[in-house]
Structures are given as C-alpha cells and as structure tokens.
C-alpha cells in the first residue's frame, strides 16, 4: 500500500525537489534503455506464458472426454467385432455415446496426408470407433479387459499416452514464462540499483549539502526515487508498446495447437502487458529507495 | 542553546578534543581560535551534529546530541545556519536558488517571497550575481552567498568556519559586519578563525568571547585578545 501511495505521490511530482538533483545523462539513458529492453522481453515472456497456458487448457479440454477404439482384424471379422465393441460400450458405465466412423469420416481424416482420392476400400485401414465419455468417465482398464474378451482386434486409445506429456510440456512452458517474467523484473531491479548507485555516488557532494542545509533523508531519497521511477515507467511503457506491436504482427494462430503461431494474446489477454510499466516503476522505486537509504546511512 | 559537559571527540583512539565544558548562550558572540588542525572545524561540527561526541555530553537546543534521530538532526539544522570553510553549493543551481535551498528542502519555499529573497541577496551584495552559477563566483562572493544561505531560515545560531579565509581585508570586514549585524538582531554567532586582526577589529564593535583550542582543550583566550 505504501509503495502505491508513493507511486501516486511520485506521479504528482515536485518541481522544486526535482531541481535540486542535477540531471545525469548517462544513468538516465541507461535506466530508460534497460527498462525498455526488459519490458519488450517481458511482453514476449508473458505472451509465451499465456499462449502455453491456453494451449495446455485446449489440449486438456479437447482430448479429455474422448477416446478412440481401433479395430484391426481380418476384413471378414471387422463388422462383427465392430458390433461387439459397440455392444460392450453400450453396457459400459461412463460412456455417453459411441459411434463407428463411416468411410467418409475416415476419408476426411486421411485426406490431409494422402489427398482426396484415396481408395479406402483397397487399403487395410482399421475401423475406428469414437467414444465420448460422461463427466465421470469410464474405467479404461476394465474396458480393455472386456474388449480383449469380446473383440480381440480392438485396441482402446484413451489419448492419455500422448496427451499427458503435451499438457505437462505446455504447463512447464507456462511456468517458464512466469519464471522469465520474475527474472526480468529482478534483472531490471538490479540494473536500476546499479544506475541509482552510480547516480548517488556521482552526487555525493549534492547529498552532503542537502543534509547540511536541513533536508531529511526522505526528501533526498525521493528526489532520486522520483527520477528513476519515472524513467523506468516511461522506458517500460515504450518497451511494452514495441513488444505488443511485435506480438501483434506475428503470424496469426490458425493452427491452434502450434506454440509458435499461437504466441499471442487474445481478448482481454491483451491488457495483461499493461501491467508491465507499473511493475517496472514499482521495481525501480524499491531498488532506488534501498540504494538511497544505504547511501544516506553513511552520511551524518 | 548549546551546552557541553566534558565532551570529547576523536577520529581514532587518540581524542582530538576533550574536556569541552561550555555554554553558548542565546545572543552571544564567540570567536574560536587556535592553530591549524587544533580542532576548530571539529568543534563546529559537534555543534550542528555532523559529528557526535565520543565522550561526555552535548545538549543542542535542549536535546541530547547522541539521542537525535536522523530526522531530528535534519530538523535541528534548520535552526542553525552554517557557513562552511569551503562554501559548498549545488553547482548546477543559480546563486539565488542556492541561497533559498534551506527553504526549498524543508518545503517552505512557498513561504518565501521573491522580494524577500532579492532583499537578502542585495543585503549580502550579490544582486548582480543572483543568476550566476556558484563556480562563476569569486571567493568573497561565495562566502557572502554562503552567509545568505545560512541565515535565510532565520536561525537561532550561526556557525562560520573561517569565513574570511580566502578574501582580502576589506571583504573580511564586510563579512564580519554582516555577522555583527546578525548578532545585533539576537542571533548567537560562533566564528572559527585564526585571523587575530579580525578578532581585534570585532571586539571594538561587539562584546565577544574569544575561546582558544589548544592541546585538545578549549579555554578562554589571553588578555591580548
């Protein structure tokens, strides 16, 4: 709360107090450039985190609740085993519906790989059965055992085998994006601390004079804190704007499963990066205040 | 105003000043003399709490020096005007802004009328140099600007460390006259100097006590002063 109050006070500014500290070009440029670069990177880290989170949710939701049964049997037995499987499924608790894919459905599935003129009837394509689960789901192991007894050519694929590592990978990516954000904030804090320390050291004589004429520590610290906070805020705002523009011109996410083309924000997600400039300003405020307090403690 | 009881200060194991026992009464005028390195500047620093005693007791405006918080020290300095030997200024601000600095940093800048500041700048003879930067000033001008800055808060105590150190005799007398005028307005004045001629000139015009620091002790100066 105190940091927020301080931020608001800083935004109001103090023209007189700002004048007592000389402008230092190098540390000003360093802080601006650092904040802008870090904010630019933070936008991408945030986009990565948001996109991978979205992907994990999508994979998780799209694939959960659906399974496939593949029947690989001699052509003469396929139909009988298909009926047997559908009968078993009808009696299986947790199965909402089951449907044997028609030739057209299977043709549509294979078209992206083999083209539209695939002679399906000449190929040993297994029969596929789509199974939709209820919210409670079914006992996959029990179903496998029953299928083995009723239809030896049927293999249940509940998608867990390949979905779980994908969801886990997307989750890890989201975590990495968040971690990158924290690291970027930490690095920004470190850089601002160094720049503030350099400015404070360069202005030691100024600080000494201010103390001697009766300035309180808070007044002196605020003169520096205000300057570095505003620099960090404006640098981060510029970096965020550039980062958002860069994300906006990335290729659109037609294939929703692709992480690279999906590196973007959607809907209100575009508002998340607007948190970066105030976060950078808050980091600069704390870093400069700590550096100033340390410096002032050494002066009577 | 300032009371010292057996106060001591040392930069290392060996004390530079010890057994300091004195009282600076309101409205009094003091000269502090002694050889270079005797501890005159250190004594003044003890008076405005830039240094804290390593022994004994110092009471500044009714408060124990050692018990002051950092904000307490800052507030105390608003009651003490200091003219430093090297007249430290903020070199990026014009002379007038440097003179007004104590008001600026205590958020009392709004109380200062331009006419009052101009009057003060004129009183120390710097009207024509009000917009110059400190590095452009001569030694005498710097001392006068430092004096104006020291009194702008209407302090109760004025401490001047070698205020005539780098100026000619005429300028020394002008600075001395400023300090005597301030004393007549009720301010307590302490001037650290090794300029004995200046002390003699002052004693013709004001009731001044001359203190001498020697061998780490402070004592009343001899009859020749």
Can you give a write-up of this model?
The complex is a heterodimer of chains A (300) and B (225). Chain A is built from ten helices and four strands, in the order αααβαβαβαβαααα. Chain A is α+β, with helices and mostly antiparallel strands and 300 residues long. Chain A has two domains: 2-60 and 170-297, no CATH class; 65-158, 2-Layer Sandwich (Alpha-Beta Plaits). Chain A has a four-stranded antiparallel sheet, covered by helices on one side. In chain A, helix 4 crosses helix 6 (140-150) and helix 9 (217-248) packs antiparallel against helix 10. Chain B is an alpha/beta fold. In chain B, 32% of the residues lie in helices and 24% in strands. Chain B is built from eight helices and ten strands. Chain B has helices spanning 40-47, 70-77, 95-99, 101-105, 114-123, 139-151, 169-184, 196-203, and strands spanning 2-9, 17-24, 29-33, 55-60, 63-64, 80-83, 157-161, 188-192, 208-214, 217-220. Chain A binds chain B through residues 16-17, 19-20, 22, 205-206, 208-219, 296, 300, and chain B through 48-52, 70-71, 73-75, 77-78, 82, 84, 88-93, 97, 101-102, 104-107, 109, 149, 153.
In short:
The complex is a heterodimer of chains A (300) and B (225). Chain A has 300 residues and is an alpha+beta fold. Helix content of chain A is 67%, strand content 8%.
Question: Taking strands numbered 1, 2, ... along the chain, how are they ordered across the largest sheet of chain A?
Answer: 2-3-1-4
What is the string of SSEs of chain B from the N terminus onward?
Answer: EEEHEEHEHHHHEHEHEE
Helix content of chain B: 25-40%
Biggest contact: A-B, 21 and 30 residues
Largest sheet features of chain A? 4 strands, antiparallel
Overall number of structural domains of chain A: 2
Total helical segments of chain A: 10
Q: Overall 3D geometry of chain B?
A: globular
Number of strands of chain B: 10
- Return residue spans of chain A where pLDDT drops below 50 for at least 5 consecutive residues: none
Q: What is the overall pLDDT average of chain B?
A: 88
Quaternary = heterodimer
Overall mean pLDDT of chain A stands at 84
Q: Hey, roughly how much beta strand do the residues of chain A contain?
A: 5-15%
Biggest β-sheet: strands ordered side by side in the sheet of chain B = 6-7-8-3-9-10
Protein structure class of chain B: alpha/beta
Strand content of chain B: 15-25%
């Amino acid at each position: 709360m105190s940091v927020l109050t301080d931020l608001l006070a800083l935004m109001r500014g103090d023209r007189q107090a700002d004048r007592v500290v000389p402008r230092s070009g190098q540390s000003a440029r360093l802080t601006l450039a650092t904040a802008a670069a870090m904010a630019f990177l933070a936008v991408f880290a945030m986009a990565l985190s948001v996109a991978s989170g979205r992907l994990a949710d999508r994979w998780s939701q799209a694939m959960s609740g659906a399974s496939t049964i593949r029947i690989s049997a001699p052509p003469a037995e396929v139909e009988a085993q298909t009926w047997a499987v559908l009968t078993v499924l009808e009696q299986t608790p947790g199965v909402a519906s089951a449907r044997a894919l028609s030739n057209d459905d299977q043709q549509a599935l294979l078209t992206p790989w083999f083209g539209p003129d695939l002679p399906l009837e000449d190929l040993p394509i297994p029969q596929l059965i789509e199974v939709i689960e209820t919210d409670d789901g079914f006992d996959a192991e029990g179903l496998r055992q029953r299928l083995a007894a009723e239809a030896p050519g049927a293999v249940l694929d509940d998608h867990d085998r390949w979905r779980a590592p994908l969801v886990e990978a997307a989750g890890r990516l989201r975590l990495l994006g968040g971690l990158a954000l924290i690291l970027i904030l930490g690095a920004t804090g470190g850089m601002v601390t160094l720049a503030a320390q350099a400015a404070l050291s360069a202005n030691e004589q100024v600080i000494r004079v201010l103390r001697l004429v009766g300035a309180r520590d808070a007044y002196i610290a605020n003169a520096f804190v205000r300057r570095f906070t505003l620099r960090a805020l404006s640098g981060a705002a510029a970096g965020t704007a550039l980062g958002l523009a860069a994300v906006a011109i990335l290729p659109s996410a037609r294939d929703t499963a692709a992480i690279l083309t999906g590196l973007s924000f959607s809907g209100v997600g575009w508002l998340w990066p607007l948190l970066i400039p105030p976060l950078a300003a808050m980091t600069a405020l704390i870093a400069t205040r700590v550096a100033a307090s340390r410096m002032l403690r050494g002066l009577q | 105003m300032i009371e010292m009881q057996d106060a001591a200060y040392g930069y290392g194991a060996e004390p530079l000043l010890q057994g300091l026992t004195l009282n600076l009464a309101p409205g009094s005028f003091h000269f502090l003399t002694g050889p270079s390195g005797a501890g005159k500047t250190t004594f003044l620093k003890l008076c405005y709490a830039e240094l804290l005693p390593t022994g004994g007791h110092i009471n500044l405006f009714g408060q124990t020096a050692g018990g002051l918080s950092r904000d307490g020290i800052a507030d105390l300095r608003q009651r003490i005007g200091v003219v430093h030997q090297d007249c430290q200024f903020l070199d990026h601000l014009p002379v007038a802004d440097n003179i007004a600095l104590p008001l600026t940093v205590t958020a009392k800048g709004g109380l200062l009328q331009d006419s009052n500041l101009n009057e003060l700048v004129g009183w120390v003879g710097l009207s024509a140099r009000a917009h110059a930067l400190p590095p452009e000033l001569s030694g005498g001008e710097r001392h006068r600007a430092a004096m104006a800055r020291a009194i702008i808060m209407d302090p109760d105590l004025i401490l001047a460390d070698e205020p005539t150190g780098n100026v000619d005799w005429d300028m020394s007398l002008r600075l001395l006259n400023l300090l005597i005028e301030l004393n007549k307005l009720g301010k307590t004045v302490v001037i650290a100097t090794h300029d004995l001629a200046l002390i003699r000139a002052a004693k013709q015009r004001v009731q001044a006590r001359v203190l001498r620091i020697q061998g780490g002790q402070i004592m009343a100066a001899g009859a020749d002063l």
